[in-house]
Amino acid sequence: MGYIEAETAIVFGRVVHGFRMRWREDLWAKTLVVPGFSDGHAHPQVVDPGAGVGARRWRDSYHWLSTRRLRVDEASLRADLRLSSRLAELTFARALLEGVTLIAVTGRLEANVEGWLRLGGAPRAVFLPTVMDRRGWPSVGEVAVAARRIRRLLADGLARVGVFVHSLGTARPESVRAAMSFAASERTVMGMHLSEGVAEAGRLREVLGPGPYPVRIAAVHCTESEDLPGGVYCVSCPLSNIILYGRTRKSLSGVLAFGSDWPLLLGTVPRHLSLPLSLSPGSLDSVLYRATMGGYRIYNMPFQGDFAAYDEGVERVLMGKARPRFVAVAGRMVVDEGRLAARGYSLAEVEAMIADAIAEAFEEHGLGDVKPRVAAREALSLTRRALLEAPAP
Ligand SMILES: [Zn+2]
Fold this sequence. Notes:
The chain is an alpha/beta fold. It has a single domain (about 40-300, about 345-390), classed as Metal-dependent hydrolases (TIM Barrel), CATH 3.20.20.140. The chain has helices at about 60-65, 75-80, 80-95, 110-120, 140-150, 175-185, 200-210, 240-245, 265, 275-280, 285-300, 315-320, 345-365, 370-380, 380-390, and strands at about 1-10, 15-25, 25-35, 35-40, 100-105, 125-130, 160, 165, 190-195, 215-220, 230-235, 255-260, 305-310, 325-330, 330-335, 340. Strand 1 and strand 2 form a beta hairpin. Helix 3 crosses helix 4 and helix 13 (about 345-365) packs across helix 14. The structure holds zinc ion.
């Protein structure tokens, strides 16, 4: 038995200097994050936000959904289990190498679970299969069958399965209520995009009643400051909100976690930490709590044995510029010397694989005369542009 000693640590969101905790061997870190970062909302199969994203803005999510010009046939990509699971695997790989120890993923359940299992040393995962009353998307009943089958595989606290209603505007009220009943009967969580550029708390009460509800609801985006029913917690995605709508939620109250939304295009939560920090000056501990413990709290996941250890100073971690040297999940080292313990890949290598997989998605499922490499490069340049253009707080 030994100790991890850290010059500075972020422990349950609080910055402390001179920190020591038990570990199976002696280890020294300049910065230690306990537990590691959480990413409360990620779509592993999003490889294309649509033409013109980054150059124009939308009013709200429904405006975006109805007018965006996708260059990838999403239904066809979702049906491609091989490529969809590859994108999921790369999402989990990137997340770990960026210091994320818990990630909640929406999209196709089978693809996400397969990618997670294949990595053989992944972050804790919350699988939230998306249901939508639209062509190419599964119903609550279909998801319930798959979720019950898969749940038996995941009974070790490293993963759980819930359900994700795409949004109030794309699912019938019966489907939203069916999703809640399913989540309640499985004693799990339900997620949904809510109030993304448009106030929806009133509509939520119309559909589900005034609350409190029998399940915890992770409401993703919540750009509007509204009074939400008890038990509904926000997962804020500040970077994609700014990219699409030019604005994000101002207040941290009601927000329990952050999400990256498009992890393959934008990177995961710790990469954009500078954004919520600059949007909420003077709230260091509150932002850090949400960026680390927040995801664990909202999805009710254990965190014992999770950490990310850095050779770099805490300022670099807060700027989103540092990458961990070691990452442990449930007491098992999954990143060792900056590389995936199971596979040996570095973050630069995984990023190159991501660029290839995105180009492949454009190649195999592209719409119109899209040039795969050019489209992939364009999609991958979003973060840098968005962060440069982000409005001053
Ligand atoms: Zn989303």
